[in-house]
Amino acid sequence: MDLIKEQGNMIKDYVSSIREGKASIFAGAGLSIPSGAPSWKDLLRDIAHELELNVDKETDLISLVQYYINKRGKAQIGDLISNHFGNHLKCTINQQLIAQLPIDTIWTTNYDELLENAFKNEHKKIAVKRSVKDFSIVGTRNDATIYKMHGCVTQATDVIISKKDYERYNDTHSVYTTALKGDLVSRTFLFIGFSFEDPNLDYVLGRISFLMGENKPKHYFFVKELQKEEGESEEDFSYRKVRQNLKIGDLSSRYGIYAVVIKEYEDITTILKIINLKVRINNIFISGAIEVFDILGEKSTHDFISSLASRLIENNNKLVSGFGVGVGSDVINGVLSKISSHPSMRLDEHLKVYPFPQTVSTKDRKQVWQEYREHIMEEVGINIILFGNKIIDGKRTVSDGVIEEFEIAHNRGIKIIPVGCTGDAAKHINDIVLKEPEKYYGNNEKLIGMIKSLNEYQLTQENINSIIDDIISIIIEIQNKEYGVN
């Protein structure tokens, strides 16, 4: 997918908001439909039939629900919600990508628990506001809060669905509208799967527009470029395009919500992946293990790794370490050395350490450590690979843990920097990526050449600074040219 100017501008603006802690997601029904959730019309099709109405001819669907409740009561609606939005729904890649973002506020009108499950899959702790009562619950620190404006399948008979529910919403659920108003004023929202036909949101947006005047915050939503349908006349197609353009113009002029036009719905996945990588591209995981120090010598190896760590955080990077044998302590020492001489630098902004759990039984260790590595990589954008050897039965061998970290990183789209001249796993991985460089670095010939150069150095005391300079240059190339971060 080649990004157009408007998409690129939105990504840059939204990433900036995420980095500042001022970004939110608003998820609508369109996000859940690919998971198997029904559209509103499909949900209400049988209800309409029982009322002797044709759901495809109806435009006021909340009134249709009201007619049914008048006739049968709301308990039947609860059963309908439970049957259609239960645990049979499975998370899609888009829900998982949202959960991977460092965003602490999610709003949704969806009844399902797909977003909750996605966050749990990412090992994140969440608070869920399913009802007004949940606002009084003050828990411990959470990674994110999910506001379910219309309720949840777990409280199916209480969901907001009928005309009466909507009419009374501002009285019965004012805590939601108040909180949403505050977020819409102070945060940048990305609306996904939303049609902007919801009367609650329309009311809140109207109030924001009135209160803010011309000083509206900027928000974004995805809209699919219209395609002419089979058998559709030019007149009808033109009419749909005019209507869509008017809707887009109205949302931007009245509410400051700007359209991000996509050709296919799969483009949303691509854009979310790019946003994820841009957000994480300054988080660098240093992977490596050393039990044999025969290339450079033990002292010089420690100096090399410490110096590299110090240089990396100078450029506003954050280092992530699994505390690998012979590597992790030097990464920490390098960061501490730099921070001790620069009082304005904060340790938590430049270092995060994940010591591997050692109390796990030998039988379970491989699986537990693999899951642990997956967890570490969730917030990483670049993976630097150094050395990678260990002793098994008295023999030196390539570290399988470092190889596994490389594979996880690649599967997650993390940029790989194998410092081949350090030997062992790093050399092995450098050889792998250079066999199919476009698979790892696209068509960036400059970057490919720089990665190749790391294989050609002779690792000596005299070359340490040059090697570190090249690693820094590669990182800058990735961050600036590939992702336009710095």
Mind sketching the topology for me?
Layout: H1 5-19, E1 23-27, H2 29-32, H3 40-43, H4 45-50, H5 61-72, H6 75-84, H7 93-100, E2 105-108, H8 114-121, E3 126-129, E4 144-148, H9 163-172, H10 174-186, E5 188-192, H11 199-212, E6 219-224, H12 234-255, E7 257-262, H13 266-280, E8 283-289, H14 298-314, E9 318-321, H15 328-340, E10 351-353, H16 362-377, E11 382-387, E12 389-392, E13 395-398, H17 400-411, E14 415-418, H18 424-435, H19 437-441, H20 445-456, H21 464-482
Parallel strand pairs: 1-2, 1-5, 2-4, 3-4, 5-6, 6-7, 8-9, 8-11, 9-10, 11-14
Antiparallel strand pairs: 12-13
Descriptive notes:
This protein has 486 residues and is of the alpha/beta class. The protein is 51% helix and 14% strand. It has helices at 5-19, 29-32, 40-43, 45-50, 61-72, 75-84, 93-100, 114-121, 163-172, 174-186, 199-212, 234-255, 266-280, 298-314, 328-340, 362-377, 400-411, 424-435, 437-441, 445-456, 464-482; strands at residues 23-27, 105-108, 126-129, 144-148, 188-192, 219-224, 257-262, 283-289, 318-321, 351-353, 382-387, 389-392, 395-398, 415-418. A hairpin with a 2-residue loop joins strand 12 (389-392) and strand 13 (395-398). Helix 7 crosses helix 8, helix 9 crosses helix 10 and helix 18 (424-435) runs antiparallel to helix 20 (445-456). The protein is elongated and about 80 Å long. It starts with a helix and ends with a helix.
What would a concise description of this structure say?
It is built from 21 helices and 14 strands. The chain has helices spanning 5-19, 29-32, 40-43, 45-50, 61-72, 75-84, 93-100, 114-121, 163-172, 174-186, 199-212, 234-255, 266-280, 298-314, 328-340, 362-377, 400-411, 424-435, 437-441, 445-456, 464-482, and strands at residues 23-27, 105-108, 126-129, 144-148, 188-192, 219-224, 257-262, 283-289, 318-321, 351-353, 382-387, 389-392, 395-398, 415-418.
